[in-house]
Design a protein that fits this description.
Length: 193
């Protein structure tokens, strides 16, 4: 027999009919409405979260995106590319100076609010760091680790110049939270059109 029922009466000859009261219908509708409102609220909250791009534009640092060409002081060209990715939630960075290239990514950690950086070089070194402001200038502070066990710290203070130029002051092995004093190297870059 289908569904284990009895012939000619289904449930022992009694017919059971479930009825839904108006109150039950209202409770069901209310639960659905609350669910929909919660879902819409969550979607609005997710969309309202600031992206890295929003923060960069708000702070006035959108100019940094692009391709920059500089000279390391010994005649070798340095090419730095800051390129938006993932709907402006990340910046991909490429730094090329013979014989090495570094590829990295910057993104915001929404839990802490930090702007974090991670990279790897063609010789296998790993680089981690954070972006911050030093005297109003975007500054990348990093620690690097080579495959041979060498480690170091560097800070790169980015200063906007006139006529599509950028000066990056490099502080090697700084010991304070923020680099101070005279930079070890200053590199002038021009933005490539």
């Amino acid at each position: 027999l289908p569904c284990g029922g009895r012939p000619n009466g289904g449930l022992g000859g009694r017919i059971q009919v479930e009825t839904t009261t108006d109150t039950q219908k209202e409770n069901t509708m209310l639960k659905k409405l609350i669910f929909v409102i919660s879902l819409v609220g969550a979607m609005v909250a997710a969309n309202a979260q600031r992206s890295l791009g929003d923060l960069v534009e708000q702070e006035g640092f959108g100019w940094i995106a692009g391709t920059w060409i500089g000279d390391d002081g010994s005649g070798s060209e340095i090419k730095v590319v800051y390129k938006w990715a993932a709907e402006k939630n990340a910046v991909m960075t490429t730094i090329a100076s013979e014989p090495m290239t570094s590829t990295g990514m910057t993104a915001m950690c929404h839990k802490t609010g930090e702007i974090r950086y991670v990279a790897v070089t063609t010789d296998g070194a790993s680089v981690t760091g954070t972006w911050d402001l030093v005297d109003g200038n975007p500054t990348l502070k990093v620690e690097w680790y080579s495959p041979s066990g060498d480690t170091g710290k560097s800070a790169y203070v980015h200063k906007k110049g006139r006529n599509n130029t950028l000066q990056v002051d490099v502080y090697e092995g700084y010991s304070a939270d923020y680099p101070t004093g005279t930079p070890d190297v200053s590199i002038r870059f021009t933005k490539k059109a």
